[in-house]
Amino acid sequence: MRTLIAGLAGTLALLLLAACVGEPEGSDDASAAMLAAAAAECRAAGGEPVPYGPRPWQVACGAEEAALYRAEEARIRAECDAAGLDTVIGGPSGWYCARATTDAGRTCRRESDCEGFCMAGAPSARTGQCSTHTVFQACLPILDDSGERIELCIE
Fold it and tell me: What is the sign, positive or negative, of the torsion defined by CA atoms of 18, 22, 54, 93?
């Protein structure tokens, strides 16, 4: 039992780390590596990996643990719906609540041009696009209110 708990803790830590770090855009190799590591950790603890979340690397160690994660997703979705917010994929649990913006995708030069964030384009670009939501749980390149490109990390 102690080995199983230690294995589950290791799997959870890996999943939380992956969720906080995020998934690099278009990185199928990174997803496959995270999935393989989580599955190996689970098997080493004597369990069988079960996918549970919106991202390919979100794997629970056994059906019982997967059911707990799915129940957590349902709880978060209900909270978001009750508050009139969108359920967004991301963050440590895999989901969080955020308000959609009305200016998503509009060209911006600074943060105050948008309801949410001015998401920076290419490193040398002086313009970006307004974010789809007012809150993100990730590290993102944005243009601040002076128009300077900065890395904003929100957990």
Answer: positive
Query: Which helix (H) or strand (E) covers residue 14, if one does?
Result: helix 2-21
The pLDDT mean for the chain works out to 78
Q: Which two tokens stand for residue 121?
A: 């384009």
Structure tokens at 152: 């904003």
E strand map for the chain = 49-51, 59-61, 86-89, 95-98, 107-108, 118-120, 128-130, 139-143, 149-153
Q: Taking the domains of the chain in order of start, what are their residue ranges?
A: 2-84, 107-153
**Cβ contact 29:23 at 8 Å:** no
Distance CA 139, CA 21 (A): 8
pLDDT band at 132 (very low <50, low <70, confident <90, very high): very high
* DSSP element (H, E) containing 143: strand 139-143
